[in-house]
Amino acid sequence: MQASIQMSAYANAAKAAAAGAALLVATPAFAGDAGAGEKIFNANCAACHAGGQNSVVPDHTLEKAAIEKVF
User: Fold this and answer.
1) Is 50 exposed, middle or buried (0-12, 13-18, 19+ CB in 10 A)?
2) Is the domain 2-70 a CATH 1.10.760 member?
3) What pTM, to 2 d.p., does this model score?
4) Domain limits, the chain
5) Distance between CA atoms of 53 and 31, rounded to whole angstroms?
6) Alpha-carbon distance 51 to 69, whole Å?
7) Tell me: the pLDDT tens digits for 39-55?
């Protein structure tokens, strides 16, 4: 059991590190350029936000209700 908890902690740390790295290289998209926004999302965000979900912080999805709750 201890090994699985430790592996889970390492997996979460790896996900957090990947998310942090993605933030460092993310390029801003402008609202009027949907094609560029899609490319940027696919390159920088889709890995953690597949299907509008969030693999790093499950409560912070891209669904409208979750976004409105945060902001």
Assistant:
1) exposed
2) yes
3) 0.45
4) 2-70
5) 21
6) 19
7) 888 999 899 998 889 98
